[in-house]
């Protein structure tokens, strides 16, 4: 492996003084459910340790991607950061304060868009902005909604309902809605996973453009190596589960603003890509082998 050592960092518990988000010794255990077998035998089903002892410090204005084999616990981790899922062990601190539930400081973009189907584009944004800022003047709310619809290139589609939009347009609404509440951190769980390759490519470039403008901290889950390399400052590579951990962290040094064609010319592009491919191949193969042996 020809990567310079500076591009790979071992996950460590070193605590940053400037971190915006600190994930410390975080573990998630899903309790075993009682089923007929456990009722008959009186034995409790075994708990499932999804992720174990995750440590990660995220600095402000960083774009971080999480990549790992399917089922390793990426969404579980993101949901804990979002405050949608409880933390079984350790703690997650935002600006030094423990996360105990969802909050407007974190905006979430879901793979399946999660829009209100009976609301228009504008109403979907309005609902989010009003919920978070109930005292804001109508004039300000209208301005924010308009700005964010324009930001994601949806001007003209304000009065359309989600069923009248393509998948790519729906995801633009999801991104606009998450950004309209002005979160400190944008959380995205496979935001382009449901889109065709071409639309996906366009939206990735849109996200890169928006990120250049706003430089918000972003944590994005993806299965795409190219997507992670285009957008991220750091790529967190998780091991397979159960008890998934962080295996390696890649630093992505490509200058910004980035374009797909130019980053592919960067001397480190192919080494980083190869490193990620071999990680994913190794972990996914181990999952498959474990499945066959069962
Ligand atoms: N509510 C739950 N109860 C029990 N087990 C769960 C629950 N949610 C997730 N799991 C288990 O935790 C593990 C991690 O799931 P998670 O959805 O976080 O994986 P993932 O990495 O996001 O996968 P994918 O890439 O397929 O989206 C899986 O084995 C899953 O079955
Ligand atoms: Mg997931």
UniProtKB/TrEMBL annotation:
Membership in a protein family: Belongs to the ABC transporter superfamily. Nitrate/nitrite/cyanate uptake transporter (NitT) (TC 3.A.1.16) family.
Pfam families to which the protein is assigned, alphabetical: ABC_tran (PF00005)
Keywords (A to Z) from UniProt: ATP-binding, Cell membrane, Membrane, Nucleotide-binding, Translocase, Transport
UniProt subcellular location: Cell inner membrane
Superkingdom of this protein's organism: Bacteria
Alphabetical list of InterPro entries matching this protein: AAA+_ATPase (IPR003593), ABC_transporter-like_ATP-bd (IPR003439), ABC_transporter-like_CS (IPR017871), ABC_transporter_ATP-bind (IPR050166), NO3_transporter_ATP-bd-like (IPR005890), P-loop_NTPase (IPR027417)
Phylogenetic lineage: Bacteria, Bacillati, Cyanobacteriota, Cyanophyceae, Oscillatoriophycideae
Domain annotation ABC transporter: ranges: 21-265
PROSITE patterns, A to Z: ABC_TRANSPORTER_1 (PS00211), ABC_TRANSPORTER_2 (PS50893)
Main location: membrane
SMART domains on file: AAA (SM00382)
Gene3D superfamilies reported in the protein's UniProt record: P-loop containing nucleotide triphosphate hydrolases
Protein name per its UniProtKB record: ABC transporter ATP-binding protein
Membrane topology: Peripheral membrane protein
Gene Ontology terms for molecular function: ATP binding
């Amino acid at each position: 492996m020809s990567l310079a050592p500076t591009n790979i960092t071992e996950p460590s518990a070193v605590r940053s003084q400037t971190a915006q988000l600190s994930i410390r010794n975080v573990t998630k255990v899903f309790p075993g459910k009682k089923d007929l077998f456990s009722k008959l035998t009186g034995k409790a089903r075994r708990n499932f340790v999804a992720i174990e002892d995750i440590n990660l410090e995220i600095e402000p204005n960083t774009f971080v991607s999480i990549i790992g084999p399917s089922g390793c616990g990426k969404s579980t981790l993101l949901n804990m950061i979002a405050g949608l899922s409880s933390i079984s062990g350790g703690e997650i601190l935002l600006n030094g304060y423990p996360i105990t539930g969802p909050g407007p400081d974190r905006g979430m973009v879901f793979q399946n868009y999660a829009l209100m189907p009976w609301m228009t584009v504008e109403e979907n944004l309005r609902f989010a902005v009003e919920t978070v800022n109930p005292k804001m003047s109508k004039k300000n709310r209208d301005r924010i909604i308009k700005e964010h619809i324009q930001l994601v290139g949806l001007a003209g589609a304000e009065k359309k309902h989600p069923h009248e939009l393509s998948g790519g347009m729906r995801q633009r609404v999801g991104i606009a809605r998450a950004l309209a509440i002005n979160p400190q951190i944008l959380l995205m769980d496979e935001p382009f996973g449901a889109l065709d390759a071409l639309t996906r490519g366009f939206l990735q470039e849109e996200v890169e453009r928006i990120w250049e403008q706003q430089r918000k901290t972003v944590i994005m889950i993806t299965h795409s190596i190219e997507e992670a390399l285009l957008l991220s400052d750091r790529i967190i590579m998780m091991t397979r589960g159960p008890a998934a951990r962080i295996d390696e962290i890649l630093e992505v040094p490509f200058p910004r603003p980035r374009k797909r064609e130019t980053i592919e010319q960067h001397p480190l592009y192919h080494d980083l890509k190869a490193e990620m491919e071999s990680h994913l191949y190794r972990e996914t193969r181990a999952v498959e082998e474990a499945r066959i042996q069962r």
